[in-house]
Design brief:
The chain is mostly helical. The chain has one domain: Vanadium-containing Chloroperoxidase, domain 1 (Up-down Bundle). It contains ten helices and no strands. The two termini are about 35 Å apart. The mean pLDDT is about 95.
């Protein structure tokens, strides 16, 4: 069985072979735009939208409540984890034609890509939000939009939004896998992230930060896969 050193050496060999043909992983421009949007949202829109959400139409509130938990990561991690394990087992033990083996390798690669994009971006966000400790909108009347108390529990874990991070990572991952419909996917992901404001769980700046980070992390992950020779381009079925 391959140990950690062997695995890292194997990755390094693949990177040396494939990385020259892929673009570099960039983050500074994306981070600068995100910071600008987050600051503008904090200064001009967070408080106003939080108060407006209390008076939104009933149908919009119901729609938001029934869709917002799509941003929970457990369902996507469970689904892609099962698909990945099943694909690997079939590849290893199944009697497959060459074309079927290629397709299953793609399925395994794509499911691993989505799983890692959602899982790792979510872990980072959950650590950061606990350290920052921003009070959530239910505490707005008592503490305002800019009260921070690190490691103080769920009500002080507003920035960035974990649901929005998952929405962003899933949206970008699906956009990479299905580029012909990437625009509707990204718009839908953005709407799902905004439901966190509608249900009173987050401020706009929390949502922007989470969604942008999820988008970037999944995009960065796609480049990482490409740099190591793991194609996310669908084979002909």
């Amino acid at each position: 069985m391959m140990g950690l050193d062997g695995f890292l050496n194997w990755l390094a060999e693949r990177r040396a072979q494939y990385s020259a043909s892929t673009p570099p992983i960039r983050w500074k421009t994306w981070a600068a735009i995100t910071v600008l949007l987050v600051v503008l949202a904090m200064v001009f829109r967070d408080s106003a939208l939080t108060l407006a959400a209390r008076h939104e139409p009933h149908w919009l509130r119901v729609l938001a409540e029934n869709t917002t938990d799509i941003g929970k990561s457990w369902w996507s991690l469970t689904l892609t984890g099962i698909v990945f394990i099943a694909a690997i087992l079939i590849i290893r033990y199944g009697d497959l034609a060459a074309a079927a083996r290629v397709r299953l390798r793609y399925v395994a690669t794509a499911s691993a890509y989505v799983f890692l994009s959602v899982a790792l971006s979510g872990i980072i966000t959950n650590i950061v939000k606990r350290i920052i400790g921003r009070a959530r909108p239910p505490l707005f009347d008592a503490e305002g939009a800019f009260h921070f108390k690190a490691f103080s529990g769920h009500l002080y874990e507003s920035f960035p939004s974990g649901h929005s991070t998952t929405d962003g990572a899933m949206a970008m991952a699906l956009a990479v896998l299905f580029p012909s419909i990437r625009i509707p996917i990204l718009i839908l992901g953005g709407f799902l992230a905004l439901t966190r404001i509608m249900v009173g769980a987050h401020y706009l700046s929390d949502v922007i930060a989470g969604y942008s980070f999820g988008l970037w992390y999944a995009y960065m992950s796609a480049l990482f896969f490409a740099k190591h020779g793991f194609s996310l381009k669908r084979p002909r079925w």
